[in-house]
């Protein structure tokens, strides 16, 4: 399932929110739309991405863990069906 939160804030308010977010992650109290976020004690991969084009820009923070199972290729699926 996916949950998402959005808001419009000032730069100062965003900095305060990010500090609160870090504290919630550390104390295992992070929620998104009232859904508890469970970040396991394993190796985490993070990506910080910045893009700017004139007056428009984005800053993205992404955190990942675990490995997604690979789906069998189509040939393997066809062989299993026969």
Characterization of this structure:
The protein is of the alpha+beta class and 82 residues long. The chain has one domain. Helix content is 29%, strand content 27%. It contains 2 helices and 4 strands, in the order αββββα. The strands form 2 sheets. A two-stranded antiparallel sheet has the order 1-2. A hairpin with a 2-residue loop joins strand 1 and strand 2. The protein is extended.
Question: Can you describe this structure in just a few lines?
Answer:
The chain has 2 helices and 4 strands. It is of the alpha+beta class and 82 residues long.
What attributes does this structure have?
4 strands, alpha+beta, extended, 29% helix, 82 residues
What are the SSEs and their pairings?
Elements: H1 11-26, E1 31-32, E2 35-36, E3 45-53, E4 56-64, H2 74-81
Antiparallel strand pairs: 1-2, 3-4
